[in-house]
Amino acid sequence: MQRTTRLQEELAQRILILDGAMGTMIQSYQLDEGGYRGARFAHYHRDLKGNNDLLVLTQPDIVHAIHQAYLEAGADIIETNTFNANAISQADYEMAALSYEMNRTAAEIACAARDEFERQHGDASPRFVAGALGPTNKTASISPDLSNLGYRNVTFDELVDAYYTAARGLAEGGVDLLLVETIFDTLNAKAAIFAILKYFDDSGQRLPIMISGTITDASGRTLSGQTTEAFWNAVAHAQPLIVGLNCALGAREMRAHIEEVNRLAPTYVSAYPNAGLPNPFGEYDETPEITARILGEFAQSGLVNVVGGCCGTTPAHIRAVAEAVRGLPPRQIPDITPMCRLSGLEPLNISRQLNFVNIGERTNVTGSRKFARLIREGQYEEALSVARQQVESGAQMLDVNMDEGMLDAEKAMTTFLSLIASEPDIARVPIVIDSSKWSVIDAGLKCVQGKSVINSISLKEGEAEFVRQAKLARWYGAAVIVMAFDEEGQADTVARKFNICQRAYR
Fold it and tell me: 477, 460 in Cβ contact below 8 A?
C-alpha cells in the first residue's frame, strides 16, 4: 500500500512519464530463431521467433536492459513485457501453460530494474511497474467468419480465465499497478476487469488499475465500434486510477479523442501514442522532437497526467517527452455530475435533461407473439428486424427476454445478443437483459460490450443470494433494476416498498 500511496501522491503533483515501445526495442536486437529459443527451448517443436513475451524466460538480460534504458531516459512507470503473455495468445505457440510463469517472471524482472534504479538514484522520485495486460489476439464481439456473424472464436469465460492467471502472476511478481491496454474490443476489457476484480476478491490484495483504449481511426471509435464515451461508460465500474488512450494513432491524430476522455473521466488521464502513423512499410518515422512537441502541447493545455509512447517509440522519444513536460502542471481531476451512464456502441446518459427513456419491449418473448415465434423457429435473422424496427422507432434501450418454456433461454439469449453485436444500427443502444433466471442474465452479460442493465434482482431469495448477484453485476459493469420483493413476497404497501428498497440499497 505504501507504493500505491506514493503513486497517487506523485500523480497529484506532476505529470508522470510512461515508457515507450517494448517490441520496437526488442526488434533492435535482431534476434534469430535461436535467440528466441534460448537454451531452455532449444529443441521445442514449434517456431518461436516473434514470441516477444517468451524472452522474459529465455533472454531476461535483454528485457532488463530495455527497462533500464527507459528508466534512464526519464520513465516514471515501466511496463512489464507481457503484452501477449496470456494463455489465449500463447496458444499460437502451444505455450498457454507458461502464462503464469511468464507474467510473474516479467514482473520480477521489471521490479528488479525499478529497485536498482531507485538505489542508484537515491534522491530521485520513486519509479513504478505497471503489469501489462494486452487485448489478446481474439475478439469477443466480432465474428471471424463473415458467413456466421453470431460465431465467436473465444468466450468471455475463456478470456476471464486467461486474464485471471496473467493478473495473478503480475500481482504475485510485485507490480505496482495493473494496466489493461490497447483495448480494441471493450468486451475483452470487461473480461479483464472481471478477472482482476475476482482476483482482488480471492486474494484480498488490491492494486490500482489503469485502463487504456485504442481509437482505431478518424471515426473516433474502437475496432468493435464504440465511441470514446460509450467505452468509458462501459469500463468506469473498474474505478481506474488512470484512464486514457494508446496505440493506432500518432499524437496529432489522438488529440481530439484525449480531449473527450479529459471531459468525461473523474480520474487521471494518460496518452501514449505511436510515433506517428506507419509508413507504407509499416514502420514509424516520427522523430522524438515531433512526438515531444505534440505531447508537450497536450500538457500545456491541461489534458494529461501521464504521457509516454507506444509503437515505434524509443528511449530517445521518452527522454524528449520527459523534457517537454517537465515543470508543467498535471491535469486537474474535474467534478463530474453523477448520473446513470449506460452504453451500447454509443452512450446513453440518463440525466434530468433527458427526463424520459423509451425501452423497446418487442424483443421480449413474453411481450411479442411474433418475436416469440421467430425465436422458437430459430429465425434469428428475422428476429433482428424486430430489434431494428424498435430502435428505428425511437427505442433508446432494448429489453431482451427469452423466458419461454419451449426455449433453451441461455442459448437463445447468447445467440441473439451475439447477432445484435454484429448490427451497428441496433447495437448502438444499451441492452436490458431481462430474465427471472440469474443463469440467463449471466449468459447475456457475457455478450455485451457496453454498459447494460440487469432486469432484475431482488431479495426474494434472501440476502446472501442478493449480494452474490449484486457483486457479479458490479464485476460485469452492469446497472441493475432492483425489484421490491423480499423473502415474504412482493411489497404490497408503501411502507413495505420503502423498507425493502432501503434494505436492498444498503
Answer: no
